[in-house]
Amino acid sequence: MLADQSLVLKAPRYTFGYGKKMVEETVALKSNQQIGKNIWLMEFRSTLLASHAKPGQFLMVHLGERTKDPLLRRPFSIHGIQEGDKVMILYNVVGAGTSLLSSLKEHDIISVIGPLGNGFALPRPSERAILVGGGIGLAPLFFLAQVLQKDQRNTVTLFLGFSTSQEVVRIQQLEELGVNLSLTTEDGSLGFKGIVTDLLDQRLSNKGPIKSVIYACGPPQMLKKVAQKATTLSLRSYVSLEGYMACGLGICLGCAVKAAHGETKPYYYVCQDGPVFPSGMIDWEVL
Amino acid sequence: MLADQSLVLKAPRYTFGYGKKMVEETVALKSNQQIGKNIWLMEFRSTLLASHAKPGQFLMVHLGERTKDPLLRRPFSIHGIQEGDKVMILYNVVGAGTSLLSSLKEHDIISVIGPLGNGFALPRPSERAILVGGGIGLAPLFFLAQVLQKDQRNTVTLFLGFSTSQEVVRIQQLEELGVNLSLTTEDGSLGFKGIVTDLLDQRLSNKGPIKSVIYACGPPQMLKKVAQKATTLSLRSYVSLEGYMACGLGICLGCAVKAAHGETKPYYYVCQDGPVFPSGMIDWEVL
Amino acid sequence: MAVLPDLSVDIGDLKLKNPVITASGTFGYGTELTPFFDPSLLGAIIVKGLSLRPMPGNPPPRIAETPCGLLNAIGLANIGIQAFIEEKLPVLTKIEAPVITNIYGHTVKEYADLAKKIEKVEGIAAIEINISCPNVEKGGIAFGTDPDTAAAVTERVVNNTTKPVIVKLAPNVTDITTIATAVESVGAKAISVTNTILGMAVDVTTRLPKLANIVGGLSGPAIKPIALYLVHKVVAAVTIPVIGLGGIMDYRDALEFLLVGARAIQVGTANFVNPKTAIEIVHGLTDFCSREKVSNINQIIGGLKTM
Amino acid sequence: MAVLPDLSVDIGDLKLKNPVITASGTFGYGTELTPFFDPSLLGAIIVKGLSLRPMPGNPPPRIAETPCGLLNAIGLANIGIQAFIEEKLPVLTKIEAPVITNIYGHTVKEYADLAKKIEKVEGIAAIEINISCPNVEKGGIAFGTDPDTAAAVTERVVNNTTKPVIVKLAPNVTDITTIATAVESVGAKAISVTNTILGMAVDVTTRLPKLANIVGGLSGPAIKPIALYLVHKVVAAVTIPVIGLGGIMDYRDALEFLLVGARAIQVGTANFVNPKTAIEIVHGLTDFCSREKVSNINQIIGGLKTM
Ligand SMILES: Cc1cc2nc3c(=O)[nH]c(=O)nc-3n(C[C@H](O)[C@H](O)[C@H](O)COP(=O)(O)OP(=O)(O)OC[C@H]3O[C@@H](n4cnc5c(N)ncnc54)[C@H](O)[C@@H]3O)c2cc1C
Ligand SMILES: Cc1cc2nc3c(=O)[nH]c(=O)nc-3n(C[C@H](O)[C@H](O)[C@H](O)COP(=O)(O)OP(=O)(O)OC[C@H]3O[C@@H](n4cnc5c(N)ncnc54)[C@H](O)[C@@H]3O)c2cc1C
Ligand SMILES: Cc1cc2nc3c(=O)[nH]c(=O)nc-3n(C[C@H](O)[C@H](O)[C@H](O)COP(=O)(O)O)c2cc1C
Ligand SMILES: Cc1cc2nc3c(=O)[nH]c(=O)nc-3n(C[C@H](O)[C@H](O)[C@H](O)COP(=O)(O)O)c2cc1C
Ligand code: FES
Ligand code: FES
User: Fold this and answer.
1) What ipTM was assigned to the predicted interfaces of this complex?
2) pLDDT given at position C142
3) In which element (H, E) is residue D109 found?
4) Which residue puts its alpha carbon closest to atom 25 of ligand 1?
5) Domains and CATH numbers, chain B
6) Which of residues 101-160 of D touch C (CB under 8 A)?
7) What pLDDT digit, counting tens, does each position of A46-67 carry?
8) Within 10 Å of residue C47's Cβ, how many Cβ atoms?
């Protein structure tokens, strides 16, 4: 399957679906380790993915050739790129697929398709980037923070909320990136006690002198509050959504989310129109 | 599942199905390694199984909790017992189930049920034991050789046939047991060139001065020839059969083999009436 | 001290201490799995399908595995009603769980004769009629696919027994509710949904069907979504209790069936994979109810929400 | 030098260079998977089911995974025949594989109107009629379960086009051969078997159905044995070619369908799991034929042996 590994396999006579760049690649795991309560970090090398991926994009990960159950690939955000070609996935073990994934070991082979979807629209040079993550919603924000810190054109403030301290992962690495980091836990075992949007409310009582852009990833209820907050403060905000995906490639039409009233389409497709959306595009009533 | 690990969990008011001794045990693998072309050896410790298993009996091996495909347990003969409590399985990777099994590593957990079925009826003290194995048919014969050599009451002669030398495994261990060993390969890459029953024909041209009993395991065509040979020489012979099994426990009635004409039942069930049968019980025409 | 949730359910006059039943053909004659657990702990036990005379069954291969599924063409092999009553029942009746016999015949009269035989013996709590077995040539299939024939068989059995009659439906029909209402109208006390679904598989190396019988019945997790939908439909169509089955492997699968309205569930193929499945489901349901503060399982039954 | 085996098959007047077709609803509008392989290498391409007007589809969740299966209630979302012709077809016609449109309507007239529209455009090799989609309330289900209605729809389409008409059958019927012979008798040139099977799934944590639509269509490996059996039955009942599908994941699965007599096969859900499945099946069949010294794939078709 690696035979034709050029990033876009242009067939001669017609252009591609969406003209997107994507590959199917078979990679050997560098590592796959538990780093928190039900949270695992997986790493593999891929020059192709690493050089083309943008923060907010995702991969469709196949769980191995040996079984047809679970059947479908699973979508995961690109958590970050390190050492030039090391791709990371940060994931929560929640069901059969992620449990199977967590059983894989170094040198085990998986097939990944990506990079898929639209990434985060980066802030303008003068803007402040406010990243808001709930739980595993940290996954794509780390990559965004990596890129923003490398560019050094924006101040990056990161608000992260977890249920409890055992879920708090990747903090040292975030601190090494040099972002302004605020933590909340619902049980108060670490950082501010409460949910992340409460902290956001406190800290973001007004627009402030510098214009900010909000980037959020987490549970729907959290995203909804962030979107409302952004509207109240007239700030641009981008949310990274999840959705049940069969293909990740725009062919199954499974990953529909209801578009906001007034949008030209009744539904957007998370894999193709997202996973990152300007929050105004989504109908938050039914999410 | 290990809570109730007594070998026979007698419920108070009624006796068990077939009064058989069997356990379901969850064991951690000691090792699982490729030792020949598509041939693997798996080892785990189980005092219960090791102390009750008889040569010719088998285990139903579950392939892991993480997937429902393959769905069913797979039957494997007990290949041998070592160091008191180390149970061995010798297996051929032929399909999805055995492929999944071969992906397991040391410390991985599997559930096994056993010991199941009827083992080989041991020879009388004066008799010579002739063991005939085709390919992976070696699996249960090794255990039989182990037990016979330990008892030291019978001369044990082992005829083993393989397609090619790359499939020839466990020879050193057999030699250590001190059995008389003859090898054949179809391509002549090792030992006698040809199939094992041809060699048997040559060496067993008559009953000989000592009465012999034949024990055979291998492909149906081989077993049939062995059975015919035994009939010709009026020797007792026991064959270990395979059959598609859903349960291994006598409840699905899936593993039927046609009984010889004149037997009281139309079908025998491999898991329960076998897997070892006196060769006269089987209708060889339709096997 | 925490009070254990009440798992008992009623299938008409039949009281079960919990809704977990072992399915016909997958639990032998009831005592084979006693090395693994005490069957007295189950809601009920349904034994292998019985016929008037002993049946040898189909030639092998009788089973084949498919993705998440099991195809079988056992051919309803069984020792016959007489041998069952004489050899198996005496042990079975010591089990403190209702024993249900599953029966099938080739003619309406055979069903009636079986009912008469069973009526005479003690220790059998109910009769489940298999009108849907796809394995035997002139067998179940004809009865189960037509409302009138299904009703005819049911009526004859009902008229020949005082025991509750459960009818086990075939899934291979255009509208299962027509069959369900037909058998309800003639006195069925409950309906089991579903029997196996017709299927086949081919060995591409030998180019032979994987079953000697060519066609078999598909069971196991593969059919769960289909079975669940059929149960959902039948529950809406009848007022008698529905017993759900098809691909149940654990207590969560069992809950899916209970939520769509099944009054009880049966465990089939799962017994082969893990002989303790049924008892683990009983424990799983108990724990679930405790966790979710459900004091009575009947609060779960039919509790499906809608968006 | 070894001569490559001839994989070409005829579906009536339609010549395919190999028997591998992508199934409707699982290959988008035909060019989405071009980053993975050149669709010109396929036997044919069937595009997403089209209706007269654009359809938004069902609210989410639209899909749920089941053991070895996929439940979907997409609701036949599509851009409508007009947008398809204007926006998608021009690119599609550059592909050197026959393009087949899959259509559905809510009334017989809608089917006829779709046929008329398609008749006028070039670059469409055939029409596949979906009479079986279980997703849309007043949709396919009614047409596909009754021989007369199925025939009525087919006849109207046949009368309004010169293109070959393929009828895609619903599996949820008591006797699929009655539908198959009915559509054959009014001029269907081929029959596709099978569409998805009705199913449902429940999230026991939320107690909600996993699909907003409650009921969906089951596809994927779970249904392969059922689909194979239906194909086997239909092949025996009709003389027109049968196209087999349902759970085909690799060339060995494809061979099972060809062996029971399918003239061609379609790849559906597998495209989601591995977007290169269809092309890998083409390669796999080529290698298989070479290995088994089969010079022409037609020697495989219907080549099932019996014991
Ligand atoms: C674009 C995208 C990016 C994602 N990135 C990440 C990531 O970086 N890290 C991570 O841990 N997870 C991520 N997810 C979610 C991840 O895909 C699911 O958790 C995973 O597929 C669950 O698989 P499973 O088999 O373990 O769980 P299942 O057994 O399938 O389900 C377990 C539970 O998770 C829910 N669930 C499963 N899949 C989804 C889904 N796609 N959307 C919402 N709920 C779901 C189910 O309803 C159920 O409650 C992402 C999802 C999308 C769509
Ligand atoms: C009592 C008993 C003892 C056995 N002991 C051993 C052993 O010690 N070592 C060993 O390697 N194998 C043994 N086998 C065979 C072993 O169970 C099968 O090879 C295994 O189940 C195949 O699983 P799979 O999923 O890899 O193959 P599948 O994908 O299920 O099948 C691959 C191929 O093997 C054939 N096959 C699968 N299962 C069986 C079966 N039960 N009988 C005959 N053919 C089958 C299939 O027809 C197919 O051609 C034994 C079988 C029985 C019944
Ligand atoms: C090997 C086997 C034998 C069966 N025998 C019978 C039977 O004798 N009578 C009957 O009504 N159903 C029989 N069934 C059907 C099961 O009782 C059950 O309806 C079906 O397997 C679906 O449930 P499951 O998916 O949990 O197995 C049999 C099923 C299997 C797998
Ligand atoms: C997401 C999805 C969408 C589908 N859409 C259509 C459709 O629009 N028209 C149609 O005739 N069949 C449709 N189908 C059915 C498939 O074409 C095919 O018949 C079915 O999925 C069985 O094949 P498979 O198991 O290979 O997927 C759809 C299937 C899926 C999974
Ligand atoms: S996941 Fe298939 S279209 Fe988005
Ligand atoms: S394998 Fe089930 S009865 Fe033998």
Assistant:
1) 0.95
2) 62
3) helix D108-119
4) A97
5) 16-116 (2.40.30.10), 120-239 (3.40.50.80), 241-287 (2.10.240)
6) 145
7) 999 999 999 999 999 998 788 8
8) 25
